[in-house]
Amino acid sequence: MLIRKFSLMLFLPLAALVVCTAAQAQSSGRNRRTNETVRNPPTVSLATDVKTLTLCPRDATLATTQVRLKADAKSPDGNPLRYTWIVSGGRIVGDGANPVWDLSGVAPGIYTARVDVATSPDPDCMAFATTAVRINECPPLREFCPNISINFQDVAAAGNLVTFTANVTGGTPGVTPSHDWTISAGRIVSGLGTTSITVDTAGLGGQDIKATLEVGGYGRICSASGMTQIPANIRPKQFDLLGDITRNDEKARLDNFAIQLQNEPEAKGYVIIYGSGRARRGNSPQERATRVRGYLVNTRGIDSSRIITLTGSPQGALQIELWVVPVGAEPPTVRQ
Fold it and tell me: Domain 147-229 belongs to what topology?
C-alpha cells in the first residue's frame, strides 16, 4: 500500500509555505510492509532592503529603482537548494538567494515577489515565501527661485560703458532659465538674453542707472537689481575775462585768480589769450601769456605745473580768459 503525507508550514514575512511528499513501499513474501521515508522539508524566509520606494528620475536622491531581495533558506538534510523567482511587476536581475528586483518604469502601487525553494534530489519537496514593496508617486515638483546677485563696476564719467553681470545659483533643479534685463536709463548695447549686459551712459552725468534682471522658468517672479551712479559731468569754470586793461588792473585780477587756485589746490589754471590782430610791441599774445604766467608763478607762488597758457586766433580785440579746471574736467576749448 502507498501512503502519502503532506505537511504545511507558515513563515513570515507575508507568507511562507512548505510542501513535501514522500512514500516508499516495500513488500516481502506473503506479508506486505510499508515503510515511510521521512524527509525534512526546507525552510525559507524572504526580506527586502526597503519596503517602500519613490521613483522620481528628476530627483537624484529619489532615482533608485532597485530593491535587494534576500532569501534565507535552509535544508535540514543538507540537500542543495534551487531558487525560482516570480514578481508581479518589474524584473529579477541575477539568481540564487540574493538577486536584485528592478522596478524601473512601474506605476505606483504594491508589488509582490515570490521565491520557490526546492531541494535536490527531490523537487517535490519545496518551500515558498513572498514579500511586497510599495511604490510611491513622485512628489509634486517644488519650484523655488535661484539666488541672484548683480555686480557692476564704478563708472569714471558719463559716456563710458558700464557692465552689469548677474550671478545665478541654485533654484529648481532641471530648469533652463531665461534672462530678461531692464534698465532705468541709458541704452543696452550688448548682452540681451544673457547674464551680462553692457550699457552706454552717454548724457547720464549725475544720474543713477538701475539694472533689473528677471530670471524665468521657475514658475514665479525671480528677480534682482543693481544700481550705480554716473558721476556728474565736471566742467571747467571761466573765472574771469580780461580786455586790454592797465598793468595794475591786470595784476589785481590775476591776484583774485591766484587766490581761487589756492582754494582749489587740485585744480589747474588755464590762461587763453586772443590777440587783436594788430601787432604791438610787447603786447603780442605770446608775450602776454609769458607775462601772466610769470606773475602767477613767481609773484603769487602758484606751482608752474598748474598753469597752462594757450593762444587762439585773433578776435578783433585783446581778450584774456582765466579758467579754473577741476580734476576730471575737460580743458576749455580754444576758439579758432
Answer: Immunoglobulin-like (2.60.40)
